[in-house]
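As a warm-up, study this chain.
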Amino acid sequence: MNQTAGPYDVCGIGSALVDILVEVPAETVEACGLIKGSMQLMDLPASEAIHRQLPPGHERSGGSAANTIAGLACLGAKAGFVGRVADDRFGEVFTADLESLGVAFGGQAVTGGGGTGRCLILVTPDADRTMCTTLGVAAHLAASDLSEDMIAGSAVTYLEGYLWDEPVAIGAIRRVIEVAHGAGRKVALALSDSFCVDRHRAAWRELVADHIDVLFGNEAEYRSLTGEADLAAACRSLARPGLTATVTRGEHGAWAFDGPGPLVAVDAQAVDPVVDTTGAGDLYAAGFLFGLVRGADLNTCARYGTLAAAEVISHLGARPEQDLATLLVGA
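Now compare it with the structure written out below.
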């Protein structure tokens, strides 16, 4: 794949959130009544009740698809993002952050309906993260919020699976697919979280089988989607002409396959120490998509992904701190 005819390489559609990262011992996660390693949606009072039990944290703009788009921009891709923010301080921070990276913001700042979304992230010493997400106005992303010109002008439109938790956003996702495919473009989906897959398995099986061109997920998400305990069997059950798919395997690297072709395996990049796995999958997707829109083979796409993921897990937070483009030179 090498599509450069439009003004954008990739457009991301997702929840515009501000991340609040807090480093805590594993016991704190349990004491807060949370499932370690999960993402849970909650209202603002519930999130604030947990936040009051924690030490001070670090505020950074985030959101799964937005992290991927930020990574792509850092790699030199032409990128856009569509999401909903409120007309408040967090909304200004989020928008300014993306625009400072050269990302075109195709969303809008709205009044009413709650503030800009936020995600309280508890990072444990094993670098795992447990997320408490309050969507705010991001929960109301609708088809009317979409920049259809941006979608039609992007080689790939990248969707985060978390959106499917909000009924109004399902209509927006279906409209994205219609617009992108109508313009001869590709649609990519990130499965986002195994608990999210559990909630929407039947709908997502249909979506992946008939409407998605590029699929991202980790081992747990692939197993949940397919019902296969063996990862290779899960990949084989998803394989079909027209689908490019990749699965991240933590310290074991990543696999990728195109249609019924063979699995391509790539080793993980060495990182010592691993500080925070927040954003690892997001940045893997950034590297993979960067290679894909430039016509690279699957091996190169997956290596780009592992390099970008390795950078982000070497520090706190889900946005790159090194020059990703330099890291990819010679990869």
